[in-house]
Amino acid sequence: MLLKKLTEAMGVSSNEDEVREIIKAEVEPYVDRYYTDMMGNLIAVKGEDKSGPRVVLSAHMDEVGLMITKLEDSGLLKFKTVGGIDERILVSKQVQIGKSKIPGVIGAKAIHLQQKEEQKKPIPLNKLYIDIGAKNKEEAEKLVELGDLATFTTKYSQIGEYATGKAFDDRLGCAAIIELMQEEEFDFPVYGVFAVQEEVGLRGSARAAYAIEPDLAIELEGTSASDVPGTEKHGYSTTVGEGPAITVMDSSVITHKKILKGLLKAAEKNEIKYQYRRTNVGGTDAGMISLVKEGIPAAVISVPCRYIHSPVSLMNLDDYQGLKALVKGYFAELEKEGF
Amino acid sequence: MDDNFTLLKKLSETSGISGYEQQVSQIISENFAPYCDEIKGDKMGNLMAVKRADKDSSNRAPRIMLAAHMDEIGLMVTKIEEKGFIRFTSVGGIDPRTLLAQEVVIHGLEDIPGIIGAKPPHLTNENDRKKSVEMEKMFIDPVLGKEDIDKKISVGDLISIKREFLSLHGDSAAGKAVDDRAGVLVLYQTLKELQQLKTKVDLYAVATVQEEVGIRGAITSTFNINPEIGIAIDVCHATMPGVDEEDAAEMGKGPAIGVGPHVHRSILQRLKETAVNYGIEHQIEPYPSPRGTDTWGIQVARTGVASGLISIPLRYMHTSVETLSLTDIKKAGQLLARFIASLDADFVEGLRCY
């Protein structure tokens, strides 16, 4: 199962190798060629010799995670977060570290030894550490190096129309591009950009776009859904199960009007359930792509995910299929109308 | 894989929240059976594995009871919100800070996966993030359609943490409910060790229920067995940053022999002697106020029982990543088997002499 394979792989920003290898193997039989660039982005090209608009579909391979920053004399490991993680979700979780996936746990002082007041405050990052079972620093050094990256160990699972797992942001975008390239023939050149380092400042994708010089770019993302207790309806941002979310504006980009109109038209025509992303907070690679050279028309479509940037997210697979259908529908418009 | 690791993994990953220990009990029963003469249950759900003395006389052999609790802490459904989100409370002591973004299993009409959530981070302000989230503000998102939620989940259903038992470097391992499935493993190890030894006492190895909610199973099972000697096997805190050595034993340095008002002086003495005589690495753990283990219940059954306490050092107690050293289990089993083999009627007679 593609989503299982992709989400269970480790790919903290700058260490996307495992994800990249999975994608290479998946797309190879279906594309003209693929290549990697200086940043580490993977670009898969299909229909390169066709005329018509050059289209980039972009998704990022990297995920948020942890970096080992100190090996204590006790053999315990200090760490910091890579990308945006609410520190409060780290306690009492399993992690895996580095290329050899050394298992470890993030523990906390037993409830029996706490003062009542302690529980009211989150445990600060500098009081947390990873325990890999090493008895001292020397033992730890044999297993882990400073700068090693760590992820959560969550397994992917599917129940009915729901899927749960880690790194849906943005392996679901990677999966969608892979499947589109596997399932579709295009009348125009399509560049699948599997980007690095989105979570640490939108570093990767735009560099690929710079080289490709596309006529337009669509970013496929996992976005946060806040349709949960404690949130007023107007704060939901997106709702799980209401279809793919179309961004009109976020903190990084105002979706190009022509693409927006085309997406809406495709949704109406093909009766694809969709929703607007109802917050302008948060940015994506589309923002950086849109500012490449003299500017590239860009848009973002995403699948709503609850509990994003945590060990486990939840999404609706109908929303995911809707996202793919929306891209297919829009491509049909592009074939007919051009750009 | 090591026999003990495999069984502990199975026990740790099985749900057995206080009052609902049946599944765990079943696994224990199957695994203990080859090493004892009889297995019995009681009305509370305690499980007793009996290994009789290798006796040559017709006198009644003294009885010794070993107790490890098989229940674990967990959560319980208190309300199903209109949209299907579940509110919950805890069964036993749980630090709410260990629960966020945690996968769980709701034990409804069937086992249903869920995720513990709270108000999303981008909707919280600076002040919110300085505070931890209270359990009342959390919810569980069941991975199930709304209609099925109403059909399959009810108030009062139990919820356990979903956590794979993990082998760490060396002999360390981590998971949930290691408190006190580690103790159950010590019973298992003791029974295995005793296959090679002769005993003059009847041994009752008991997996007790409802320890986490008030030492309940130990009270009734001790009454039932009516032993002369009763030893609880539980976990104690292991050293870690933020925990004073005064309050903790060291992981991997052998079982901790409990000392305190709840431990009979002769039992303590014999345990220490046995450890020294057989070169079994051990530690001493002082417990001035010993309310937190089955020893508390055992000691005061009927006319009083000569009680003792053996503990496995455990880091991060009552989180879902409780970490221990498997060697400590092995050594505890060796210690208890040698201790039991050393017991005879004279020693038991002497327990009443102060």
Please characterize this protein's 3D structure.
- The complex is a heterodimer of chains A (339) and B (354).
- By secondary structure, chain A is α+β, with helices and mostly antiparallel strands.
- Chain A has two domains: 2-63 and 166-337, Zn peptidases (Aminopeptidase), CATH 3.40.630; 66-152, Peptidase M42, domain 2 (Elongation Factor Tu (Ef-tu), domain 3).
- Helix content of chain A is 26%, strand content 24%.
- Chain A has eight helices and 17 strands.
- Chain A has helices spanning 2-8, 17-27, 137-143, 168-183, 205-212, 257-269, 285-290, 317-337; strands at 33-36, 42-46, 55-60, 65-71, 77-82, 93-97, 102-106, 130-131, 149-152, 157-159, 162-165, 190-195, 216-224, 245-246, 275-276, 298-306, 313-316.
- In chain A, the strands form two sheets. In chain A, strands 1, 2, 3, 10, 11, 12, 13, 14, 15, 16 and 17 form an eleven-stranded mixed sheet that branches.
- In chain A, β10 (157-159) and β11 form a beta hairpin.
- The model of chain A has no long low-confidence stretch (mean pLDDT 95).
- Chain B folds into two domains: 3-72 and 176-350, Zn peptidases (Aminopeptidase), CATH 3.40.630; 75-161, Peptidase M42, domain 2 (Elongation Factor Tu (Ef-tu), domain 3).
- With 354 residues, chain B is α+β, with helices and mostly antiparallel strands.
- In chain B, the strands form three sheets. Chain B has an eight-stranded mixed sheet, with helices on both faces.
- In chain B, α1 runs antiparallel to α5 (178-194), α5 packs across α9 (326-341) and α7 (265-277) crosses α9 (326-341).
- The mean pLDDT of chain B is 94.
- In chain B, β6 and β7 form a beta hairpin.
- Chain B starts with a helix and ends with a helix.
- Chain B is built from ten helices and 17 strands.
- Helix content of chain B is 28%, strand content 26%.
- The interface between A and B is large, with 65 and 61 residues.
The amount of helix of chain A comes to 25-40%
Helix content bin of chain B: 25-40%
Shape of chain B: globular
Helix-strand makeup class of chain A: alpha+beta
- The chain-level mean pLDDT of chain B equals 94
Structural class of chain B: alpha+beta
Biggest interchain interface, per-side counts: A-B, 65 and 61 residues
Query: Which CATH architecture of the largest domain in chain B would you pick?
Result: 3-Layer(aba) Sandwich
Q: Taking Cα atoms only, what radius of gyration of chain B do you get, to the nearest Å?
A: 21 Å
> What is the CATH class designation of the largest domain in chain B?
Alpha Beta
Q: State the total count of DSSP E strands of chain A.
A: 17
Question: Can you count the beta strands of chain B?
Answer: 17
Question: What order do the helices and strands of chain A follow?
Answer: HHEEEEEEEEHEEEHEHEEHEHEEH
Oligomeric category: heterodimer
By DSSP (H or I, 4+ residues per run), the number of helices of chain A equals 8
Strand order, main sheet of chain B: write it out: 1-2-12-3-13-16-14-15
Low-pLDDT runs of 5+ residues of chain A are: none
Instruction: Please tally the helical runs of chain B, counting DSSP H or I stretches of 4 or more residues.
Output: 10
Averaged pLDDT of chain A, please?
95
CATH topology of the largest domain in chain B: Aminopeptidase
Q: Report the sheet with the most strands of chain B, covering strand number, pairing sense and barrel closure.
A: 8 strands, mixed
